[in-house]
Amino acid sequence: MIHRSRLWLPAAGVLLIGALALGVMIGPAGNWGAADWNIIWNVRMPRVVLAGVVGAMLSLAGASYQGVFRNPLVDPYLLGVAAGAGLGATIVFAIGRSATSNWVVDPLPLAAFVGGLLAVLVTYLVGAGFGANRSGVTLVLAGVAVTSLATAVQTFVLQRNNDVIREVYSWILGRLSTATWGDVTLVLPYVVISSVVLMLHRRHLDVLRVGDDEAIALGTQVRRVRLAVVIAATLGTAAVVSVSGLIGFVGIVVPHMVRLLAGASYRLLLPLSLLLGASFLILADIPGRVLQNPAETPIGVVTAFLGAPFFILVLRTRRTA
Amino acid sequence: MYRSIPTSLRRLTTLGAVALLGLAACGSDDAEPASAATEAPAVSEAPAATDAPMTSDAPAPLKIVSLSPSATEMLFAIGAGADVVAVDDQSNFPDEALAVQTDLSGYTPNIEAIAKYEPDLVVHDGTTDLGAQLQAIGIADWVGAAPVTFDDIYVQIEQLGAATGRVGEAAELVAQMQADIDAAVASVTEPAAPLRFFHELDDTLYSVTSNTFIGHVYGLFGLQNIADTAEGTTDYPQLSAEFVISQSPDLIFLADTKCCGQSIDTVGARAGWGAVKAVGNGGVIELDDDVASRWGPRVVGLVQQVAVAVNAVQVAAP
């Protein structure tokens, strides 16, 4: 068992390299050799790399959330990151991007980032305010409430500014298509910090699997671990959402794929989710680019289209197993 | 606990549904060639149109509510602006229309709010079921759906002329528009090789095919639309950046200067776009989003702007 688990990481690494190579080689401007280097370097490569970074972060955050809430069905958007970020982005679109085009900092990712963090902060304050925070159930319910509230406000703002619906819609479906190197460097620091913190907590997550009381008995500071993991996962998720929009299913599907293949231990689950998440989104973006060439298929559509059937498969396998 | 997934899913689907509805509404404003557009826009039981004397010296006294920015521009252009008592929140041209601009919405019309103005005629684009509602309370309406051809626009102007007792002014306006457009087309020297262009609806590279009305504007000059290769899926495809750059169009028309703050500078600053012909040859043209998505009299200015651009880009790169 031990030597088997050692093989998984190199295998996932090789897969990621393969996915990167494939991603860079295939695209609407022509495959490797036929396409202009200018296009490959400036347009395709940042897109492939951003897909990798976003996929890695969403999968890792999803796996961590699942561990900290002891629930295999949660995703990184659980505590309201997505709804908050969506609201922030919608407000920027509603104000009008021409009004803000001269700003030093592009307000769109900033508003999405701040909106996502604020939503989770409210969730946390509300959830913790009700006490009984021990299993995280109140936190999850608070997340549901905050998500609904933010979504309602977003819908209202959209209805008042329906001329920007197409822009907001396109943002919600995920936008790897406009990726630049600037996007990559913007999110990378957050993703690195978040990933390191989450990785350091992977053993604690294994302890948490036995239950809060038992974990406390084993000497784990459950509340501190939960807080650290939630903050790190939220920070990373908010950062990637702010540049890529909402890309669904990656955060659920990939950790489950890993559980099926390599078992449920977080020591292996987290690094494997990171690597396979990157590969998954890089590979999913390829049909996004070429399926309707030269038109784009939104990445959110592709991931959900691949993700939903897979999710059903996972559920079936689990029941029969 | 287990509600978390369905909730986030539902969130996305709800938003999707809302956005799709919005897209439909948006599309109409962007000159979507709705099937209704080919049917002649009809005056449904507009008493004023039949009762009023059809001469321009005695305009029928009317109270008009316009929920269509394009129709608002037509009404003011034929001199019927004085009859307009309220326009919707999107009608921002001409300046006189701002004086009667209200919170009324053409996308999500509120029948009671409209009825409050006690209009004799409500002008809208037919994308909602407002017509049936108005009929139920006995208010006449006129529908001007998104056009496909220039003739559709002329018909709409003439119908509004008839409905407001300004047949003469309407005919004059149509004749002037036709003459100006003909002159603009004639002013263009035909390029040796057909010029290719990219019409940008927003900074995520949504575009239009030649099936749309705006596509017809470029068709006047024999320009080739690079988005036409994406035809078959939709008339409003989202093109990939790789494709646009590799096509290297001679002209890029920015219909996203207002919505998305795009300009000659921002396009020039995009990574990888420096190699595109239009960027090197001064072929990036900033359009007014509103003019490029409506079908009022200002379409003449749009045609003239395209004509100037076609000539200029040929001088820059013979």
Topology:
The complex is a heterodimer of chains A (321) and B (318).
Chain A: H1 2-25, H2 37-68, H3 81-95, H4 107-129, H5 137-160, H6 165-172, H7 181-200, H8 202-208, H9 212-217, H10 222-244, H11 250-262, H12 266-290, H13 299-320
Helix pairs in contact in A: 1-12, 2-7, 2-10, 2-11, 2-12, 3-4, 3-5, 3-6, 3-10, 4-5, 4-10, 7-10, 8-12, 11-12, 11-13, 12-13
Chain B: H1 4-29, H2 35-38, E1 43-44, H3 47-51, E2 64-66, H4 69-77, E3 84-87, H5 95-98, H6 111-115, E4 121-124, H7 130-136, E5 140-143, H8 150-163, H9 167-186, E6 196-200, H10 213-219, E7 224-225, H11 241-247, E8 251-254, H12 264-269, H13 277-280, E9 284-286, H14 289-293, H15 299-316
Parallel strand pairs in B: 2-3, 2-4, 4-5, 6-7, 6-8, 8-9
Antiparallel strand pairs in B: 1-5
Describe the overall structure.
The complex is a heterodimer of chains A (321) and B (318). Chain A has 321 residues and is mainly α. Chain A has a single domain (2-320), classed as ABC transporter involved in vitamin B12 uptake, BtuC (Orthogonal Bundle). Chain A contains 13 helices and no strands. The longest helix of chain A is centred in the first third of the chain and has 32 residues, at 37-68. Chain A is globular, with a radius of gyration of 20 Å. By secondary structure, chain B is of the alpha/beta class. Chain B has 2 domains: 38-183, Nitrogenase molybdenum iron protein domain (Rossmann fold); 189-316, Nitrogenase molybdenum iron protein domain (Rossmann fold, 3-Layer(aba) Sandwich), CATH 3.40.50. Chain B has 15 helices and 9 strands. In chain B, helix 10 links the parallel strand 6 and strand 7. Chain B is elongated and about 60 Å long. At the A-B interface, helix 2, helix 3, helix 5 and helix 6 of A face helix 1 and helix 11 of B.
